[in-house]
Amino acid sequence: MKLSIVILNWNGREFLKKFLPSVIKYSSFPWAEIIVADNGSEDDSKEVVEKEFPSVKFLQLDRNFGFAEGYNKALSLLESDYYLLLNSDVEVSENWLLPLIECMESDPLVGACHPKILQLDQPQKFEYAGASGGFIDHFGYPFCRGRIMNIQEEDKEQYNHTIPVFWASGAAMMIRSSIWMKMEGFDSDFYAHMEEIDLCWRMKNQGYKIMVCPSSRVYHLGGGSLAYGNPRKIYLNFRNNLFLLYKNLPKNRLYPTLLKRMILDGVAALQFLLTGQFSAFRKVFEAHVSFYKNITLLRAKRKELLPKIIKENHPEIYKGSIVWDFFIKGRKKFSELNF
């Protein structure tokens, strides 16, 4: 196969019933296969797929490995030129695949790409998890072309050109299988959230490009596994961001950046406390405790990665602070940033 479209599922029978029809309708090519990789679901997902979508392959994993390791397990069993990791709560559109394939085949250094991601419920607006290209600032805060903090812009085709970005969204990421294997996939210790940014950063450090291809469009429901604002999601986001920085920052930026980021995390935790979000406050504290507990493991990973780095400076890293620009300077749109 040239392409394996892999949907990781966990107790998502309703998502499968709702979203698989569009994937089948717009992805039926002899060179593409659709696979549901099941992360140890306890519902009747398998029966739903086998009965209602017989053209879709069902790959059963024996337990819930989380997003990162679930994909690692599933993709290790497949042989294709490209993998397309697709969330189970994504609706695709006509002609969504060919632009992504063409983007990948335009340059052998393109390691991954993703489509423009719009909101399912408000399709005129960009979606939080990817929008029209993922970026990151000097302190490790992710944002998107079309989404800064919690503000999602309206899509007026202002970001319709294909450009290099810093990260591709795990909601709909196409990646070259040879590079996936070279990078050894996602870091399973992330479990879920920011594992795609970590993977893309590792790829970029080895000289590969990440692209967004807005001529391909998909529509994402979002919050399918963990709702936005869920304490578990807050914990994983804060913890994994520290993991991300420790693993991938160049030597001269590591400790100054971590110190500043921890101060900013403290400010965020204080805001949670003052606004009565006590569970969120605890999760920030727990995230930092977990980071310190894992420092030996992270140091070993960093030691392994450092000799492989051939490129440290990336123009897609915003040199300023997205927090400062958003809250102090009032810059709510990507077009207002000074890259």
Q: Report the span from N to C terminus.
A: 40 Å
Structural class: alpha/beta
Poorly predicted parts: none
Number of strands: 14
**Count, helices:** 11
Order of helices and strands: EHEHEHEEHEEEEEEEHHEHHHHEH
| Major sheet characteristics | 9 strands, mixed
**Outline, from the CA principal axes?**
globular
As a percent range, the share of strand residues is 15-25%
Radius of gyration: 19 Å
Descriptive notes:
It is globular, with a radius of gyration of 19 Å. The protein has 339 residues and is of the alpha/beta class. Helix 7 (231-248) packs antiparallel against helix 8 and helix 7 (231-248) packs across helix 10 (295-305). The termini are far apart. It has eleven helices and 14 strands. The model has no long low-confidence stretch (mean pLDDT 96). Helix content is 38%, strand content 21%.
What is this structure's SSE topology?
Elements: E1 3-9, H1 13-26, E2 32-39, H2 45-52, E3 57-61, H3 66-75, E4 82-86, E5 90-92, H4 97-105, E6 110-119, E7 134-137, E8 142-144, E9 147-148, E10 151-152, E11 163-165, E12 172-176, H5 177-182, H6 195-205, E13 209-220, H7 231-248, H8 254-274, H9 278-293, H10 295-305, E14 317-318, H11 322-327
Helix pairs in contact: 1-2, 6-7, 7-8, 7-9, 7-10, 8-9
